[in-house]
Amino acid sequence: QVQLVESGGGLVQPGGSLRLSCAASGHIFSINTMGWYRQAPGKQRDMVATITSGGSTNYADSVKGRFTISRDNVKKMVFLEMNSLKPEDTAVYYCNAGVLLLPTLLSRDLWGQGTQVTVSS
Length: 121
Description:
- It contains no helices and 11 strands.
- It is mainly beta and 121 residues long.
- Strands 2, 4, 5, 6, 9, 10 and 11 form a 7-stranded mixed β-sheet that branches. Strands 1-3-8-7 form a 4-stranded antiparallel β-sheet, with no helix packed on it.
- The protein has strands spanning 3-7, 10-12, 18-25, 28-39, 46-51, 57-59, 67-72, 77-82, 91-101, 107-111, 115-119.
């Protein structure tokens, strides 16, 4: 069964850093865009950062200069390095990947289960 498995969330102080990891597994032919999204209580799920298969990145304005998204196409993983964290970064962070499945080559959006990031003193 295809799935995304996340790790790295936790509690950090303002100004601290966290590194989130997400691994895709299963019968996947290829992975197109991967990304991280977050959802705070009472708010919609918003894009944090995305990265295409070619390495082109996009960031939400609120995280530019602080967060860095990267991927390892061999390991089928995507990472989010979060620096200079602020309390407003507190949210559940979700990994996302657009994939082509084997053997059908049908496209599918995969979502991780979410990992809590809390920034607080």
